[in-house]
Amino acid sequence: MRKILISATALFMSVSVLMAGCSTSSSPEGANSTATAEELTPYGKYAETVTYTVGKSTPGIPKLPAGQSYEDNAFTQYLKETLNIQNENKFEAQSGDNYDQKVAMAVASDDLPDIMAVDEQTLRQLVDNDMIADLTEVYESSTSDIVKEKYASYGGRVLEAATFDGKLMAMPSTSNANIPTMLWVRKDWLDKLGLSEPKTVGDMEKILTEFVQQDPGGNGKGKTVGLVLAKSIGGLYGSLFQADNIFATYQSFPRQWLDKDGEVVYGSTTEETKQSLGLLADWYKKGLIDRQMAVRDSIESVIISGEAGAFFGPWWSADYPLNDAKRQNNDADWRPYIISKDGSGEVTAYTQNPAAEFYVVRKGFEHPELLPKLTSALNDKLVNEDLNYEPVVEFIKGGFDGGKPLGIMVNYNDATAQMYKDLKATVDGEKEYETLTLDDRTSYDKIVGYMKDPEKADANQWSGYMSRMVGAKLMAETKVNDVHPVFFGQTKSMKLKWTNLVKLEDEAFLKIVMGEEPLSYFDTFVDTWNRTGGSDITNEVTQAIMNK
Asked: Average pLDDT, stretch 451-476?
């Protein structure tokens, strides 16, 4: 009997060792993955269908083809064929507040879907309460090399935002670079007045002066607007009608939390910002900036009507609002320029939050590797290998939206520059048309249409060419010295006081620029900002950075 027991024990140990040797996963803490070695690879197809629940963020108005649903459409079909996975929606809600409320309820009731998108604050809450899976190991095993390369293009900032105590707790969506913004100018007005194209802030001032005084558009005396600006003058990343290019020449970065000599500061309260406002106030006094900037309901209407000569905007400004301006007046020749303090073409600009949102896996979900696999399939395999997958091609061509079970988007930080290079190579015959993404094929067709006969090109062909072959070219070739803000989240005091502080800032800046208050009023604004919550928030931001 003793020999039988020993033999049985030995056999059990042998089988255990053998099973351990065949095991596919040293499961991360909190996970119970039963995936095989092949299934743990980025594109290893599950032997049996894996069904997973999601928190589904939906468009405002459903945009799905007839007969398709959020659980059964071109994208879910692709994922079923590629990975053998099937989503079920634990809850659905429109993007924004409605979705956030559903997430909050799921967290409060400890009833999470297997995978869902959350903001940074909720991510920290889930981590603190040990409610989500550690993805460190499955990220390494189940993420494609291309997706890893895309994340790496942000210099570690994206994954770092999702890492706590050395553990990767989420996979973020990325926000690729949309800088530098550019000075868009009426080139036909420059030519009419015999003016050179702008390279410096000084050149810009001269051009605006001539536009306003000489009225090259024939709008009538006093009706031509030099530069249009938004009421919120600066600090809205990559947006239209901001003066960030002017602020940056003074090393000023409004609305950004910065590390200045080892101390956290709010960019809107610095001496450099005061100097920038002084220049803009001088321009406004000289009539170079839109006199109606405080009360205009539609800045775009001034551009479309032909009354404005310049504005700041990103590379895609030719698509909007300039496409409409071109329809209104085909002779309006808008061109983008990079201006700098010394004319070198080298600029300084602040970056945005590279992690747009975070996708988390419920702790205890049997297949945590499914998230990096799905992310890789949608952001690598589909767009690089299977870009001609017919159901998805037809879905996109039809203008439909919301088919992906998860909205996770991972792109290169310099995606716009890469888009330009791909289109340029295709135009030059160095790249095959069929290798372009569907969006780039549409752009290519517009570009070629414009190049065949620029004089007869329609507004869509013009805007396609001007945005992707001129604006995006500047994105690709301009040397940008990046300034990385150190904080993008929300602190306790921000919830209560931030709205009023932003209003205070907007009103103070507008009053200074429009001459309703002297430049010295900036010091009053800073003092009030600190006393009414700014100082407390600065301390909280400092503490949050130290605790990360």
From this structure: 96
